[in-house]
Write a structure and sequence with these properties.
Elements: E1 2-6, H1 7-26, H2 30-46, E2 63-67, H3 70-87, H4 93-109
Antiparallel strand pairs: 1-2
């Protein structure tokens, strides 16, 4: 499934998957760590002009498309929800933005229009 989003939203997903990967490695859950890393690598390969060796992402307000499997998008939504709850139990702006991205992913997974 391909979703269109801002690079800023992708960077939130990428950072969340990095957190998921780290925690899974810490707990010895190597398959979960590999799954999170696969989501990150897919984005790296798809987001226009991203070249990790050259240190760059496109401007954060530009739009991009990322295609992942439904299972990968579910992992991203679950990870965002989990880390948003840890990040800020008081629901500040940062966690609200995170949860908005997770909601949009879940909407797309259920076949409803999703806007990221």
């Amino acid at each position: 499934m391909r979703l269109t989003m801002t690079v800023r939203d992708w960077l939130l997903i990428d950072a969340t998957m990095d957190n998921v990967r780290w925690e899974a490695n810490q707990q010895g859950r190597t398959q979960d760590a590999a799954a999170a890393n696969a989501v990150r690598r897919a984005g790296w390969n798809q987001v226009a002009t991203h070249r990790p060796a050259n240190g760059g992402w496109p401007p954060t307000d530009s739009t991009t498309q990322v295609e992942l499997s439904a299972k990968q998008w579910r992992l991203a939504a679950e990870g965002i929800e989990y880390w948003a709850s840890i990040e800020d139990e008081d629901q500040t702006e940062s966690s609200r933005i995170s949860l908005t991205v997770a909601d949009a992913i879940r909407s797309a997974l259920s076949g409803r229009p999703a806007e990221l």
